[in-house]
Structure formats: structure tokens, C-alpha cells
């Protein structure tokens, strides 16, 4: 690895890293920003489905990232700068001292993730909070989910904050985005995938549930949850709690449910 030293924040070679927060809001035309060592390592790992495009790092962090440079090879330029220069480029104090650009992987269709054999999918409807999205992706990776399907109301799982919360797990997961939730569920049913609607009003307790070997856990947005008409059409399950309390954060509920349905 031969680093490129950046001394001027206006250097055109770091244009793509400039004003990170503002660019987050308008989109990056197929690129995303990875922040911090954990997400950078996920980006360059053999399991990553994403292509690294460039790295910008505090010059004091270079030595500690030797494993990253070995994994990265010559696939992307590495630019180094002093902390003060980094802060000016990013537009805010970059305490982690590491940014990278990656390319969003090609779109994945349901046919690619629902082939023969046992399958576990996570289907997400209407989750617009990036913390929740990141946590859902982390949970999916932790419990060996084969793919995550997001409806057209979900936020971007490749948003910088979502990636950070997911500890980079999103970068190795097949992510399907194919339209409205109802259409996704109909397509899964046609592919012999049993869809389990997770809701406090679920008809069956999660504990002791025996799902199909080909199954999808379906979760909805924080607060309202899944639409009642969706729950009515699916096998619905609930997490039993103490009397008078029936609400969990969507990512927490999904983690409990995924743990339960993926146990041998």
C-alpha cells in the first residue's frame, strides 16, 4: 500500500469525501460512505459484496490498519491526512479518523435468494429509522439469515449511520428491494416460503413454534407495526411478555424471533 498524502482540504482527489453529512442527504449515485475501522474491515473482507472505491484515514491510524491494507491490496487508493485536515474535508470532527467509499452491490431479486432447500429470510416493511435498520441488518447476519427483503417504504440500509450500527453486516448480506410489502409477501408465498408476521397481536406464541424449513420473518415499522390486513393473511406470531406490556423495539423483537426460529 502506497498512501497518497493529502495536505490541502480542497485537494480535488478527496472531493468525494467532502461535506459528508450534506452529501448523505442527497444520495451518492450508487456509492456509500463507510465510517470507522469496523465497517472498513467489513468492506474489504472476503465476504463483502461491495467494491471499495477509496479510503481516507488519519495518518496516525495507518500502522494499526495493516490487516486492512493487506486485504485491500491495490483495489482502491488510500489517502492519508492529519486530523485537522480530515475534519475540514468531512465537515465535522471525524473522531474515528476513518472514511471509505464503497459501491452498492448490484440489485438482487427474490429468485436469487429463494432457490431450493431450507431458507431463512427477514422481510422488513416501512422501517424508516436508520438505527433500527442497522440493528436489523446486524441481527440478520448474526442469526444466519440468507437474505433481507425491504419494501419500498424502508430507509436506505447503506446510509452511513445504518452501516455503523450494523457493524458493517449489511455489506455481506443479499438485500432485496422489490416494491410494496404486499407484493413481496405474495411472491414469497408463490416460492413456497412461509411468512411469519411478528406482532404483539400474533395468534401463536413464538416460544415452541415449529416453522417451515423455508420461512421468512416479517416485521413492520416501529410503533404501528405491520398493517392489520397483512397480519390477517399470514401465520402471525407474538413474543409473550408480562401482563400490561406488549411492546419491544422492532430490532430487539426481530432478534428474539430470529434466534427462536433458527435454533435446530
Mean pLDDT: 93
Structural class: alpha/beta
Strand content: 15-25%
Q: How much helical structure, as a percent, in the residues? A: 25-40%
Largest sheet: 7 strands, parallel
Q: Please trace the helix and strand order, writing H or E for each element.
A: EHEHEHEHEHEHEHEHEEEHEH
Spatial strand sequence of the major β-sheet: 8-7-6-11-9-12-10
Number of H/I helices: 10
Topology at a glance:
Elements: E1 4-5, H1 20-26, E2 31-35, H2 37-44, E3 51-58, H3 66-72, E4 78-81, H4 83-90, E5 98-103, H5 110-113, E6 119-124, H6 130-142, E7 147-150, H7 160-165, E8 175-177, H8 181-190, E9 194-198, E10 204-205, E11 214-219, H9 228-233, E12 235-238, H10 250-262
Parallel strand pairs: 1-4, 3-4, 6-7, 6-11, 7-8, 9-11, 9-12, 10-12
Antiparallel strand pairs: 2-5, 3-5
Helix pairs in contact: 6-10
Can you summarize this structure?
The chain has helices at residues 20-26, 37-44, 66-72, 83-90, 110-113, 130-142, 160-165, 181-190, 228-233, 250-262; strands at 4-5, 31-35, 51-58, 78-81, 98-103, 119-124, 147-150, 175-177, 194-198, 204-205, 214-219, 235-238. The chain is α/β, with parallel strands linked by helices.
Written overview of the protein:
The relative contact order is 0.15. The strands form 2 sheets. This protein has a 7-stranded parallel sheet, with helices on both faces. Strands 1-4-3-5-2 form a 5-stranded mixed sheet. Helix content is 31%, strand content 21%. Strand 3, helix 3 and strand 4 form a beta-alpha-beta unit. It is α/β, with parallel strands linked by helices and 264 residues long. It is elongated, with a radius of gyration of 20 Å. Helix 6 packs parallel to helix 10. The chain starts with a strand and ends with a helix.
Amino acid at each position: 500500500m502506497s498512501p497518497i498524502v493529502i495536505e490541502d482540504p480542497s485537494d480535488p482527489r478527496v472531493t468525494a469525501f467532502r461535506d459528508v453529512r450534506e452529501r448523505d442527504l442527497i444520495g451518492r449515485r450508487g456509492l456509500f460512505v463507510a465510517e470507522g475501522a469496523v465497517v472498513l474491515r467489513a468492506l474489504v473482507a472476503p465476504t463483502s459484496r461491495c467494491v471499495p472505491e477509496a479510503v481516507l484515514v488519519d495518518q496516525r491510524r495507518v500502522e494499526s490498519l495493516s490487516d486492512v491494507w493487506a486485504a485491500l491490496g491495490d483495489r482502491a487508493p488510500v489517502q492519508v491526512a492529519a486530523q485537522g485536515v480530515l475534519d475540514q474535508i468531512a465537515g465535522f470532527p471525524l473522531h474515528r479518523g476513518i472514511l471509505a467509499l464503497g459501491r452498492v452491490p448490484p440489485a438482487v431479486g427474490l429468485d436469487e435468494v429463494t432457490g431450493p432447500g431450507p431458507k431463512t429470510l427477514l422481510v422488513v416493511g416501512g422501517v424508516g429509522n436508520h438505527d433500527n435498520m442497522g440493528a436489523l441488518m446486524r441481527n440478520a447476519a448474526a442469526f444466519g439469515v440468507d437474505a433481507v427483503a425491504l419494501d419500498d417504504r424502508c430507509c436506505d440500509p447503506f446510509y452511513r449511520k445504518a452501516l455503523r450500527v450494523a457493524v458493517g453486516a449489511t455489506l455481506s448480506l443479499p438485500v432485496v428491494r422489490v416494491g410494496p410489502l404486499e407484493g413481496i409477501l405474495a411472491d414469497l408465498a408463490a416460492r413456497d416460503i412461509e411468512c411469519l408476521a411478528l406482532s404483539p397481536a400474533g395468534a401463536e406464541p413464538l416460544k415452541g413454534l415449529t416453522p417451515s424449513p423455508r420461512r421468512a420473518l416479517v416485521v413492520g415499522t416501529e410503533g404501528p407495526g405491520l398493517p392489520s390486513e397483512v397480519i390477517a393473511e399470514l401465520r402471525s406470531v407474538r413474543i409473550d411478555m408480562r401482563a400490561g406490556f406488549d411492546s419491544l423495539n422492532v430490532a430487539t423483537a426481530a432478534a428474539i424471533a430470529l434466534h427462536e426460529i433458527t435454533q435446530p
